[in-house]
Structures are given as C-alpha cells and as structure tokens.
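note to self: dont lose this again. the chain is below, predicted strucutre after it. 238 aa total, dont forget to put it in the shared folder this time
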Amino acid sequence: MKLSILLFLTFCTFTSIGQNLPTGIADRATYLNDLKTELQKEWPKNRTINIIFHGHSVPAGFFKTPQVNTLGAYPHQFLQKLKEIYPFAQINIIVTAIGGENSISGAKRFKSDVLIHKPDLILIDYCLNDRGAGLQKSYVAWNKMVKQAKNHGIKVILLTPSPDQSVNYDDPSNELKKHTDQVRRIASEAKVGLVDSYRLFEFLYPDKEQIKQYMSQVNHPNEKGHELIADELITWFK
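---
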C-alpha cells in the first residue's frame, strides 16, 4: 500500500510538469557493459545468458490473430542479430509475454514467471494494452516490475508501444502517447534502458497507407515492423 501511494504521488508530480522528455535514461554506451563482457567469453569460460521478453501480444509473436510468428517477432530477430555480434555466446531468449495481457497482470506473475529464470536482462513491453487499465495503475505495475528486477541486480530495458492504426497520431495528446510519455519517465526515474518504439515509427504516422506496409493487422506489426524494433534494440549491444 505504501509503495502504491508513493508511486502515485510521483506520477502526479510528473504529469503536472508537462510533456518534456526525460534525461535520466541509462547510457546506451555503458549500461550493459557487464553483460557484453559475458557475451564475449568463449568456451569453457562462457555461461548461458538469459534474456527475457515480458509483455503482451507483440513480443509474444502474434501477427494476424490467431497466427503466432515466433521466429519473425522482434525477440527472435534480435537473437539472430545478437549472434552475429557474439558468435561464441550461449544465449537463451525466453518469451514470457501473453497475448491480451496488460502490465497489471504481468506484474502479478513477474516473480513466478520471469525472475524464476534468473535473467541477465529483462525487456518489458505493455503499453498497447495498458490503455484500458489507465495511467495510474500502469505506473504502479511498471515500477513494481522494475524495482523487483533491480533488487535482484538485473538490468532492464523498457519499450514504448509499436503502432496501432486505430490511434489518431495527429493528436499529440492521444492515449497511447500518454502511456509512451509515462514509460519514458519511468525509464528516466529508474535509470534503466529504453527502446522508444513509438518514436521509431513516427515517420510512418502521417501516411496511413505507408504504415500498413509494416503491419500484419491493426495493432500487430509484421516482420518488417518487428525488424525496426530489433534493429533499435541491438544498438544497446554494440
């Protein structure tokens, strides 16, 4: 209860400040240095690296529902790119994402489904589905997961949302943008990593026909869309 109150008070403070982007996000050049050192080790000195993708249908690999294209989704595209950089590394990509889930549900099973794997890195992607839960509850849930990870010495990268073609992106105060700004703030407050998918796709928002080339359905990217996210994520490992 005390944690919820504290997080809500912090949330109210930030929402009163305005829409300025945060500046405290982890340094891309140094944040994962320890992990990159481990990835460079060769047998017999190397060990298995566990990287977990926690979230909703997009990291789970849902394309045009009910099709699940696991290997075409950004977690496994990322793995292919990561192995090109670290060919001697033993890497487990573990996807704990569930289609249709929001961060409140994800936070409830974070210990049992995520931390149990002893991850080296956790990526969290829930914005698309958090609109129904609202900003306050989502804020508490994201912070709860980040705090648990940090308490175990685990690095975290948060993701802002991939596109939803039903959103009016011409409206700078659309609900998805509000959740995007909130995740940016959380990354800044906690000094963890950020992959800003919302910004990655901004070049497409003015052209509804062009954005369809990156989507398999209204709110799920196709392989081309997932690749944009994987390409941005891999920059944290170079």
